[in-house]
Amino acid sequence: MKHLMTAAILGTLLAACATGGERVETVTRMFVIDCGENHVRDVSRWTPGVNAGRPHVFGNHCYLIRHAKGWMLWDSGNADRIAALPNGLTAPSGMITAIMRKPLVESLRQIGLAPADIGHFAMSHSHGDHDVFGDGSVLIKATPGHTPRHQVLVVNLPRTGRVILSGDMVHLRYSWENRVVPSFNFDIPWSGRSIDQMKDYAAGTGAKIWINHDKEQHAAIPKAPAYVE
Predict the structure, then answer these.
(1) Does residue 175 sit within a domain?
(2) Beta strand pairing call for 118-122 and 70-74
(3) Of 108, 166, 184, 213, which sits most exposed with the smallest number of CB within 10 A?
(4) What is the pLDDT of residues 106-149, one digit of tens each?
(5) 8 A C-beta contact, residue 45 and residue 184
(6) Is residue 105 part of a domain?
C-alpha cells in the first residue's frame, strides 16, 4: 500500500511539472511605444567606412513593461515638447533632426495609464546588472562603450521569451551582425567588447535583440496600444 501511495504522489507531481503548473509568470506583457524619429544627413557616422553621405531615419522607441509588482518604463524617447514643432528640432550642426509625432504622455493615456502609475523607470543612457523586480524577469545589464555607463535591458516575456532592448549599444541590425561601432562612441574597443558579451549572452539564453533605433526591424513589432507577451 505504501508503495502504491508513493507512486500516486509521484505521478501527481510529475503531471504538475508536465503541465507547467509550478511556473509563475511575473512579466505579462510589454508595450512598444513609438517615441519619435531621428533623421540624419550622413549615416556613415554610425557605420564608419560605408554609407558616406547617405541620409537615414532612425526609429526611437520606449518600452512599457507590465509586471506583477507594477509598471516599468524603459527609455523615454524624444522630448514631448518636440511634438509641438511641425518640422521637429534640428541640432545646431544640422546633422540630426529629432521628430516626435505624439507626446509620450498621450501614448500612455491611450493605454490607460498616467505617468504617476509607473513605479519603475530606467534609461539605457543613465550613464552593472540590476535585477529590477528581484525575480530575474527584468535585468539591467552594463554595456559600456557608447557612453561610459551605457546599459541594456533584458525582459523575459511569457510567450516571446527573453528580449534584449539595445539602447544605443548598436543602432542598426547591420551594426549588431557585423560588430560595427560608431567612430564617435566614448570608447570604441569597450563598445566592441559589450557587443561580444551580449552576443554570447544571446547565444546562451536564446534572447532576441530588439534594436531601438532600427526602424525596419521595429516595423514588424506591434505598437501600443497593442502589446507583446
Answers:
(1) yes
(2) parallel
(3) 184
(4) 999 999 999 999 999 998 875 446 878 888 899 999 999 999 98
(5) yes
(6) yes
The per-residue b/e assignment along 171-190, b for 16 or more CB within 10 angstroms, e otherwise, is bbebbbeeebbbeebebeeb
Classify 15 as helix, strand or coil.
helix
Give a yes or no: residue 11 inside a domain: no
Residue 20 lies in a domain: no
**Which residue carries 498616467 as its cell?**
114
Domain containing residue 149: CATH number: 3.60.15.10
Q: Give the structural domain span for 81.
A: 25-218
Pairing between β-strand 208-210 and β-strand 161-165 as defined by DSSP bridges: parallel
Q: In 107-138, which positions are buried (b, 16+ CB within 10 angstroms) versus exposed (e)?
A: bbeebebeeeeeeeeebbeeeeeeebbeeebb
- Specify the number of domains making up the chain: 1
Q: Can you tell me the distance from the alpha carbon of 30 to that of 38, in angstroms, rounded to the nearest whole number?
A: 23
Hunting for cell 495609464 — which residue is that? 113
Lowest-confidence pick of 11-15, 73-77, 130-134, 207-211? 11-15
In tens, the pLDDT along 16-36 reads 444 455 566 799 999 999 999
| Residue type for position 104 | L
